[in-house]
Amino acid sequence: MRDPYRIPPMLSWQEFLDAVAREPVIDNGSGRAERDDDWAGAGWDEARRLAVDGWHVPLEGAGITVGLLRERAGLGAEVTMLEPHWDVTGAEVDIGAYLAGVPECMVDAVPRRTSTRGRVVTFLIPGTYSHRVPHEWIINRGLALATLCAAIIEAGHSVEIWSGWACKLGRRRVTATARVISAGEPLDVGRLIFAAAHPAMLRRLWFSVWDGWHADSATELADGTYGQPPYDCRAEDLPPEITDPYVFPFLEETDTQWTDLDVALSWCRAMFADLGLVTGESWELSRS
Known about the structure:
- Helix content is 34%, strand content 18%.
- By secondary structure, it is of the alpha/beta class.
- α3 (44-53) packs across α8 (200-211), α6 runs antiparallel to α7 and α6 (135-154) crosses α10 (261-272).
- The termini are far apart.
């Protein structure tokens, strides 16, 4: 018997959209409530359209260029690697080459500059957050993430983006995840910006998923204002084959790092330095 409080943990984006489109099994859900358009940031039909077509907020329109971000953050910067080099002189003897009579039997470690490329970086973004968080903060966080993802891809890496639902309902922890962007697929920036930056991703689409999931869970979630904190997602909310994801903290009204887009970008850059994709040198991101 399925757990009414556990949506299958590997929803693809299309499966997520299919779940959104289910007819609600309750009458008091917020996913399609017209009274909530301002609070949700969009009506239900508009939110579905944006999820399919993307929310095309130009990153350049926010005063950011991906190239500038990559340059200032050091994404894809060359690093020094030590590689063996064989010659007639050197620091060590290659015994195998010496016994084979090869004149170039001495080995030196020669520094060579190369680019760090090819890594897959997985991000898990809590789709749930405090109802007191202003729309602008949600948008700033999403734009910062989208800009960095585009820069990471331009530097030769891949990203995988998941949107997560997590809340407490009484003593129960309720979770769900949906994969917004798969590793290796072309980056759909409009989809990513909608999923990460638009309030309707939570207040229309995630709510609609639960409104149409199961009568027991839908009723309890709607009656409980869709859960209480903590809204923290965890690495174990993702499929087990995903290792070492970066899990964003959920948004609270005290998270002033998202009040301004420049501050949001600086905060993201500092946090992502631990990924090994950016340099540790100080920098400032200026408006273009």
